[in-house]
Q: What sequence folds into this?
């Protein structure tokens, strides 16, 4: 009899099936003459041996028990999970999520120093390669507009700013949605509400950013108005697309059964980079031809 | 008497000071004639009312109790924290960390849909502005090398690739260190070990990436060797600096009392963007002048 299992006593029938639960409190505070069958609560919350730990964590959070019985498919009691196991499991789940959100794919629950150099490289390299491939696509878009850039070289000065703002705006949204999914506050069926909310947030944020940017380009950089207009219009479009993409991709991933944590900052930023170049440079051809 | 507090009984002296703890198990299983003073354990783990929740979470994780007494500065018992409070606190701490790592500054523990549009904008805009300012610096570096870019326009095609790889490589490192700090696996005093480890990981990852990249630039893009050499050398330098910076900045922040979660992907990527442009374009002047 150890500390973990003494305060909640599970009642089994002859076939080892779980039929009830009785607390030590009831055993000591209620009439000692009463049979267990009178004391026990028959409506027991339990989990199945095949449930994954994320599911079990949710049961713990919902009921706030400090122990939950585990049964097999015939409802035979096979073990008990206690809150400290679950705290560890939640911590490991969260670490895995956070790492995946940064493009680190480790699956072993070892600490930073316990993971070997080679293992670390193996955990980090796949996403770096995928994201490098995605960045090559961005390079292709730039190559396509090379003549335009040669014509107006100052356009390139604002490219890092646009790519940066877009990537960051998208990361913010995807992170909030990924965390919301993990906590059960957001679900794929709420996609339209998320889209509408991100759209309005993006519009306000984009206007604020591009006003600041407009002032800086005109008065500090001393660029002509058409350059400022191109950059700021591109910025508004990019922030809006980035935030909507950041909000939608994790929901889509969840819907089709991919881990939403993969649709985080690095991937969003890479995708946003590509269409930022496209939006900015194609827009520049339209706007600059009007002046 | 509620469920949460019945299984662990705290013993106070006349001045309400906490002097011991006795478990319900001992009360019911040991000799009923024994006085409480014989049954109780005097070495009680407790927390202070002024401890922050991160500190309290660590005590819970260390001891795996399901309740911990809270005392004031005179060691008078003022309350009890149970594991379910702590599970919620850890969850909120983690959410705050994850959001900060994406440049979202919310401090209220409300869910995604409960946070108003204006509040969301206020949570997200400050970092977007800071990072935009940082991206403007990158623009200055590019403006400085404008002549070089005009001379060899194909250099610009590889800029997003270099900035992307650097940012992602740095994010990976900073994320692992930030999480390691939160879990107590990494500490500022281990900075040299972290630096040495990141250096070796960076070297291996950078070599792998730049070999792939070299092949692609030479054989797919058909660029001359000096362009491939410039891009790949820059990539190795950038990945190494990014990973070391990503590993060190969270430790430095912790050391000086800033939340390490702020030294995450977005900030690292912005810093890396600036020196990527500098390293790449200055390197191109050196290497291309040799051919």
A:
């Amino acid at each position: 009899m150890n500390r973990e299992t003494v305060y909640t006593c599970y009642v089994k029938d002859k076939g080892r099936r779980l039929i009830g639960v009785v607390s030590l409190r009831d055993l000591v505070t209620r009439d000692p003459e009463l049979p267990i069958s009178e004391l026990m609560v028959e409506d027991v919350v339990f989990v199945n041996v095949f449930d994954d730990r994320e599911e079990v964590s949710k049961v713990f959070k919902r009921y706030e028990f400090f122990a939950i019985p585990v049964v097999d498919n015939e409802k035979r009691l096979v073990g008990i999970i206690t809150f400290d196991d679950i705290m560890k499991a939640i911590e490991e789940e969260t670490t895995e999520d956070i790492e995946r959100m940064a493009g680190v794919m480790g699956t072993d629950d070892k600490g930073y120093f316990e993971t070997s150099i080679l293992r670390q490289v193996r955990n980090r390299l796949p996403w770096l390669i995928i994201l490098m491939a995605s960045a090559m696509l961005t390079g292709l878009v730039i190559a396509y507009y090379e003549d335009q850039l040669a014509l107006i070289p100052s356009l390139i000065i604002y490219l890092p700013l646009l790519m940066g703002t877009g990537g960051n705006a998208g990361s913010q949204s995807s992170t909030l949605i990924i965390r919301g999914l993990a906590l059960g506050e957001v679900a794929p069926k709420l996609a339209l509400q998320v889209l509408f909310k991100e759209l309005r947030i993006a519009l306000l944020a984009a206007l604020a950013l591009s006003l600041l940017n407009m002032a800086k380009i005109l008065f500090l950089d001393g660029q002509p108005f058409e350059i400022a207009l191109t950059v700021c219009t591109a910025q508004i479009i990019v922030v809006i697309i980035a935030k909507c993409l950041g909000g939608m991709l994790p929901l889509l991933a969840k819907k089709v059964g991919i881990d939403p944590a993969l649709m985080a900052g690095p991937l969003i930023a890479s995708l946003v980079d590509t269409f930022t170049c496209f939006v900015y440079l194609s827009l520049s051809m339209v706007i600059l031809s009007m002046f």
The longest strand of chain A covers residues 18-23. The longest helix of chain A spans residues 225-256. DSSP finds eleven helices and five strands in chain A. The radius of gyration of chain A is 28 Å.
